[in-house]
Amino acid sequence: MGLKDIIRAIREYPAxxxxxxxARSELWxxxxxxxxxxxxxxxxxxxxxxxxxxxxxxxxxxxxxxDALEEFCPRLSTPDELKRFYDAISPxxxxxxxxxxxxxxxxxxxxxxxxxxxxxNRGLFEEMSGHSLLDWLTAVHFQAVDWDIIPxxxxxSATLREVDTSTSEYQAFEKQLYAKVLERMGFQSLLxxxxxxxxxxxxxxxxxxxxxxxxxx
Length: 217
Hints:
Elements: H1 3-72, H2 79-93, H3 98-108, H4 112-115, H5 117-121, H6 130-141, E1 145-149, E2 156-160, H7 168-184, H8 203-206
Helix pairs in contact: 2-7, 3-6, 3-7
């Protein structure tokens, strides 16, 4: 190495040393990050195993409760029994009642907003719960709706009447509705296999074509 090379090396030494220190610092930070990541990974692995064990416990608990229900709960057969059981579990499994409404819609073929375009255009059904929508569907299904012409137009608004729940038709409707909902929720083993003659019918075939209330201008 000549004198020039030695002088150049002396001049470049501070910069090279700074680069080396920077590299060492970055390496240390990377090692620290790797150690932290390994610790977090171990913690997550432990949490995952705990969650797996807890999920397994909940699954076993659910199966045990299901077995206990089947052992001690009488078979649900009447509309009142079916409805009482649904009311008991709905706060946790169907709080807004949309499972109930969707099943009624599936069984009857009735879509509430389509049957009441005037009210639908006013946004009446946008924030309505499934339980409230079911009231409107039931009124249409059992023809308990009064239509009033809006003054100055040919459009009509709807007023719901009280549905007669004592009829055999309504009892059959309610029985099938709640039985189907409980079946969908996984409680089919609690349902009575026996059915009253003629109680279960194809509701779509007996659903009247609802009178439409027109649209707002």
